[in-house]
Amino acid sequence: MAISNKRQIYKLLDLGLSEREAKVYLTLLGKKGFTTRELQTSVSIPRSKIYEVLRKMISRGICTERIIGKLKYYEAIEPKAAFNRIIEGYNDEYREESERRKGAISMLISSLNPIFEKNKDTVSPLDFVEVYKDSEQMQKKYLKIIKDTKFSFLTFSKGPYVCNTPKRLGEQEREETKLIKRKVLCRNIYEKHEIESFGWLREYIKHQVSLGQQARVTESLPIKMIICDEKTILFPLIQTVGKYNITTIIVEHHELAVACKMLFNILWDNAKDIK
User: 58: domain CATH number?
Assistant: First the structure.
Protein backbone atom coordinates (compact mmCIF):
# COMPACT_ATOMS: atom_id res chain seq x y z
CA MET A 1 0.00 0.00 0.00
CA ALA A 2 1.29 3.45 -0.89
CA ILE A 3 2.41 5.75 1.92
CA SER A 4 -0.20 8.34 0.92
CA ASN A 5 -2.94 5.67 1.20
CA LYS A 6 -1.72 4.72 4.68
CA ARG A 7 -1.95 8.33 5.80
CA GLN A 8 -5.45 8.64 4.35
CA ILE A 9 -6.52 5.45 6.13
CA TYR A 10 -5.21 6.85 9.44
CA LYS A 11 -7.21 10.04 8.89
CA LEU A 12 -10.35 8.02 8.12
CA LEU A 13 -9.78 5.98 11.27
CA ASP A 14 -9.61 9.28 13.21
CA LEU A 15 -12.96 10.15 11.67
CA GLY A 16 -14.47 7.01 13.16
CA LEU A 17 -14.39 4.57 10.27
CA SER A 18 -13.13 1.03 10.79
CA GLU A 19 -10.02 -0.04 8.90
CA ARG A 20 -12.10 -2.14 6.49
CA GLU A 21 -14.51 0.76 5.86
CA ALA A 22 -11.58 3.07 5.21
CA LYS A 23 -9.99 0.67 2.71
CA VAL A 24 -13.31 0.05 0.92
CA TYR A 25 -14.08 3.77 0.69
CA LEU A 26 -10.66 4.57 -0.79
CA THR A 27 -11.10 1.72 -3.27
CA LEU A 28 -14.57 2.95 -4.28
CA LEU A 29 -13.08 6.34 -5.13
CA GLY A 30 -11.00 4.59 -7.81
CA LYS A 31 -13.83 4.13 -10.34
CA LYS A 32 -17.57 4.58 -10.86
CA GLY A 33 -18.84 1.30 -9.47
CA PHE A 34 -17.63 -1.98 -7.93
CA THR A 35 -19.32 -5.32 -7.48
CA THR A 36 -18.87 -7.14 -4.20
CA ARG A 37 -16.55 -9.65 -5.88
CA GLU A 38 -14.33 -6.81 -7.20
CA LEU A 39 -14.22 -5.16 -3.79
CA GLN A 40 -13.48 -8.45 -2.08
CA THR A 41 -10.55 -9.02 -4.40
CA SER A 42 -9.24 -5.42 -4.26
CA VAL A 43 -9.42 -5.02 -0.47
CA SER A 44 -8.88 -8.63 0.61
CA ILE A 45 -11.97 -8.80 2.81
CA PRO A 46 -13.68 -12.20 3.35
CA ARG A 47 -16.94 -12.64 1.44
CA SER A 48 -18.83 -13.12 4.70
CA LYS A 49 -17.65 -9.66 5.90
CA ILE A 50 -17.85 -7.51 2.74
CA TYR A 51 -21.64 -7.31 2.87
CA GLU A 52 -21.58 -6.30 6.54
CA VAL A 53 -19.04 -3.53 5.81
CA LEU A 54 -21.05 -2.22 2.84
CA ARG A 55 -24.34 -2.19 4.81
CA LYS A 56 -22.71 -0.12 7.52
CA MET A 57 -21.19 2.30 4.98
CA ILE A 58 -24.57 2.74 3.28
CA SER A 59 -26.20 3.45 6.66
CA ARG A 60 -23.49 6.03 7.36
CA GLY A 61 -24.26 7.69 4.02
CA ILE A 62 -20.76 7.36 2.56
CA CYS A 63 -21.55 4.94 -0.26
CA THR A 64 -24.56 3.95 -2.39
CA GLU A 65 -25.86 0.73 -3.93
CA ARG A 66 -27.18 0.47 -7.54
CA ILE A 67 -28.76 -2.61 -9.08
CA ILE A 68 -28.18 -3.23 -12.79
CA GLY A 69 -29.78 -6.44 -13.94
CA LYS A 70 -28.80 -9.11 -11.47
CA LEU A 71 -25.67 -7.33 -10.24
CA LYS A 72 -25.27 -4.83 -7.41
CA TYR A 73 -22.77 -2.01 -7.83
CA TYR A 74 -21.39 0.16 -5.04
CA GLU A 75 -20.18 3.74 -5.45
CA ALA A 76 -18.47 6.22 -3.13
CA ILE A 77 -20.32 9.35 -2.08
CA GLU A 78 -18.41 12.58 -2.74
CA PRO A 79 -15.94 13.01 0.18
CA LYS A 80 -17.27 16.43 1.27
CA ALA A 81 -20.87 15.16 1.47
CA ALA A 82 -19.83 11.82 2.98
CA PHE A 83 -17.75 13.29 5.76
CA ASN A 84 -20.33 15.96 6.57
CA ARG A 85 -22.89 13.16 7.01
CA ILE A 86 -20.53 11.39 9.41
CA ILE A 87 -20.14 14.57 11.47
CA GLU A 88 -23.90 15.16 11.44
CA GLY A 89 -24.36 11.60 12.66
CA TYR A 90 -21.99 12.25 15.55
CA ASN A 91 -23.82 15.49 16.35
CA ASP A 92 -27.15 13.66 16.41
CA GLU A 93 -25.68 10.98 18.69
CA TYR A 94 -24.25 13.69 20.95
CA ARG A 95 -27.61 15.48 21.16
CA GLU A 96 -29.41 12.23 21.95
CA GLU A 97 -26.84 11.31 24.59
CA SER A 98 -26.98 14.82 26.03
CA GLU A 99 -30.78 14.68 26.28
CA ARG A 100 -30.59 11.22 27.84
CA ARG A 101 -28.13 12.46 30.46
CA LYS A 102 -30.20 15.55 31.16
CA GLY A 103 -33.17 13.27 31.82
CA ALA A 104 -31.09 11.11 34.15
CA ILE A 105 -29.81 14.20 35.98
CA SER A 106 -33.34 15.54 36.38
CA MET A 107 -34.48 12.23 37.89
CA LEU A 108 -31.48 12.13 40.23
CA ILE A 109 -32.10 15.70 41.39
CA SER A 110 -35.74 14.90 42.11
CA SER A 111 -34.85 11.81 44.13
CA LEU A 112 -31.68 13.00 45.90
CA ASN A 113 -32.47 16.65 46.73
CA PRO A 114 -35.03 15.73 49.42
CA ILE A 115 -32.38 13.59 51.14
CA PHE A 116 -29.89 16.49 51.05
CA GLU A 117 -32.44 19.01 52.33
CA LYS A 118 -33.44 16.69 55.16
CA ASN A 119 -29.87 16.27 56.43
CA LYS A 120 -28.12 19.52 55.52
CA ASP A 121 -28.72 21.11 58.93
CA THR A 122 -27.40 18.10 60.84
CA VAL A 123 -24.22 19.16 62.66
CA SER A 124 -21.41 16.68 63.17
CA PRO A 125 -18.50 17.33 65.58
CA LEU A 126 -16.18 16.52 62.68
CA ASP A 127 -17.48 19.61 60.85
CA PHE A 128 -15.29 21.85 63.01
CA VAL A 129 -12.46 19.53 64.12
CA GLU A 130 -9.27 18.70 62.20
CA VAL A 131 -6.50 16.34 63.33
CA TYR A 132 -2.90 16.47 62.09
CA LYS A 133 -0.09 14.04 62.89
CA ASP A 134 2.46 14.81 60.20
CA SER A 135 4.70 17.74 61.19
CA GLU A 136 5.07 19.03 57.62
CA GLN A 137 1.30 19.17 57.13
CA MET A 138 0.95 20.82 60.51
CA GLN A 139 3.55 23.42 59.56
CA LYS A 140 1.60 24.35 56.41
CA LYS A 141 -1.68 24.53 58.32
CA TYR A 142 -0.12 26.64 61.08
CA LEU A 143 1.31 29.14 58.58
CA LYS A 144 -2.10 29.42 56.88
CA ILE A 145 -3.80 30.07 60.22
CA ILE A 146 -1.31 32.85 60.97
CA LYS A 147 -2.00 34.44 57.57
CA ASP A 148 -5.77 34.30 58.21
CA THR A 149 -5.63 35.80 61.72
CA LYS A 150 -7.11 39.33 61.91
CA PHE A 151 -7.00 40.73 65.45
CA SER A 152 -5.63 38.41 68.18
CA PHE A 153 -3.11 35.60 68.47
CA LEU A 154 -2.71 34.14 71.97
CA THR A 155 -0.26 31.33 72.72
CA PHE A 156 0.70 28.97 75.50
CA SER A 157 4.22 28.23 74.21
CA LYS A 158 5.82 25.01 75.33
CA GLY A 159 7.66 22.11 73.69
CA PRO A 160 7.89 19.95 71.77
CA TYR A 161 7.81 22.35 68.83
CA VAL A 162 6.72 21.79 65.24
CA CYS A 163 9.50 24.17 64.15
CA ASN A 164 12.14 21.49 64.73
CA THR A 165 14.30 22.54 61.78
CA PRO A 166 15.93 25.90 60.89
CA LYS A 167 13.74 26.07 57.76
CA ARG A 168 10.48 25.67 59.68
CA LEU A 169 11.59 28.07 62.39
CA GLY A 170 12.45 30.66 59.74
CA GLU A 171 9.07 30.22 58.03
CA GLN A 172 7.22 30.68 61.32
CA GLU A 173 9.25 33.73 62.31
CA ARG A 174 8.56 35.42 58.96
CA GLU A 175 4.81 34.89 59.18
CA GLU A 176 4.65 35.86 62.88
CA THR A 177 6.60 39.02 62.07
CA LYS A 178 4.04 39.89 59.39
CA LEU A 179 1.31 39.19 61.94
CA ILE A 180 2.75 41.78 64.32
CA LYS A 181 3.24 44.30 61.53
CA ARG A 182 -0.48 43.92 60.68
CA LYS A 183 -1.14 45.24 64.23
CA VAL A 184 -2.57 41.91 65.40
CA LEU A 185 -2.44 41.56 69.21
CA CYS A 186 0.20 38.86 69.85
CA ARG A 187 0.57 37.56 73.39
CA ASN A 188 2.77 34.59 74.28
CA ILE A 189 3.25 32.91 77.64
CA TYR A 190 6.42 30.82 77.97
CA GLU A 191 7.63 28.34 80.56
CA LYS A 192 10.58 29.53 82.63
CA HIS A 193 12.65 26.35 82.36
CA GLU A 194 12.41 26.34 78.54
CA ILE A 195 13.65 29.92 78.24
CA GLU A 196 16.55 28.98 80.49
CA SER A 197 17.29 25.78 78.51
CA PHE A 198 17.01 26.88 74.87
CA GLY A 199 19.24 29.58 73.44
CA TRP A 200 17.34 29.66 70.14
CA LEU A 201 14.11 30.30 72.06
CA ARG A 202 15.64 33.25 73.94
CA GLU A 203 16.81 34.76 70.64
CA TYR A 204 13.40 34.21 69.07
CA ILE A 205 11.58 35.89 71.98
CA LYS A 206 14.01 38.81 71.99
CA HIS A 207 13.45 39.42 68.28
CA GLN A 208 9.66 39.10 68.43
CA VAL A 209 9.37 41.34 71.49
CA SER A 210 11.44 43.99 69.71
CA LEU A 211 8.83 43.93 66.94
CA GLY A 212 5.85 44.19 69.25
CA GLN A 213 5.02 40.75 70.63
CA GLN A 214 3.87 40.85 74.26
CA ALA A 215 5.63 38.05 76.14
CA ARG A 216 5.36 36.79 79.69
CA VAL A 217 6.82 33.86 81.60
CA THR A 218 5.34 31.41 84.13
CA GLU A 219 6.61 28.36 85.98
CA SER A 220 4.48 25.92 83.99
CA LEU A 221 1.65 25.78 81.48
CA PRO A 222 -1.18 23.22 81.60
CA ILE A 223 -1.22 22.65 77.86
CA LYS A 224 0.27 23.80 74.57
CA MET A 225 -2.41 25.98 72.96
CA ILE A 226 -2.99 28.77 70.41
CA ILE A 227 -6.18 30.86 70.17
CA CYS A 228 -6.83 32.90 67.02
CA ASP A 229 -9.51 35.60 66.70
CA GLU A 230 -11.81 33.94 69.25
CA LYS A 231 -12.73 31.30 66.67
CA THR A 232 -9.83 28.88 66.08
CA ILE A 233 -7.98 26.88 68.73
CA LEU A 234 -4.92 24.72 68.17
CA PHE A 235 -4.04 21.99 70.66
CA PRO A 236 -0.62 20.46 69.78
CA LEU A 237 -0.74 17.46 72.14
CA ILE A 238 2.31 15.43 73.10
CA GLN A 239 1.96 11.83 71.93
CA THR A 240 3.83 9.11 73.77
CA VAL A 241 2.82 6.20 71.50
CA GLY A 242 3.59 5.83 67.78
CA LYS A 243 6.05 7.52 65.43
CA TYR A 244 4.64 11.06 65.80
CA ASN A 245 5.77 13.35 68.65
CA ILE A 246 2.78 15.67 68.36
CA THR A 247 -0.83 15.23 67.37
CA THR A 248 -2.42 18.61 66.66
CA ILE A 249 -6.15 19.11 67.05
CA ILE A 250 -7.64 22.22 65.44
CA VAL A 251 -11.12 23.32 66.47
CA GLU A 252 -13.20 26.02 64.76
CA HIS A 253 -15.64 26.96 67.54
CA HIS A 254 -16.36 30.43 68.92
CA GLU A 255 -17.67 29.47 72.37
CA LEU A 256 -14.76 27.10 73.01
CA ALA A 257 -12.32 29.76 71.84
CA VAL A 258 -13.83 32.29 74.24
CA ALA A 259 -13.58 29.80 77.13
CA CYS A 260 -9.92 29.09 76.26
CA LYS A 261 -9.26 32.83 76.08
CA MET A 262 -10.62 33.20 79.64
CA LEU A 263 -8.09 30.60 80.80
CA PHE A 264 -5.36 32.37 78.88
CA ASN A 265 -6.19 35.73 80.48
CA ILE A 266 -6.07 34.25 84.00
CA LEU A 267 -2.61 32.83 83.39
CA TRP A 268 -1.51 36.02 81.60
CA ASP A 269 -2.48 38.16 84.56
CA ASN A 270 -0.48 35.94 86.91
CA ALA A 271 2.58 35.64 84.67
CA LYS A 272 5.60 37.98 84.71
CA ASP A 273 6.93 40.17 81.92
CA ILE A 274 10.05 38.85 80.24
CA LYS A 275 12.97 41.15 80.86
Answer: 1.10.10.10
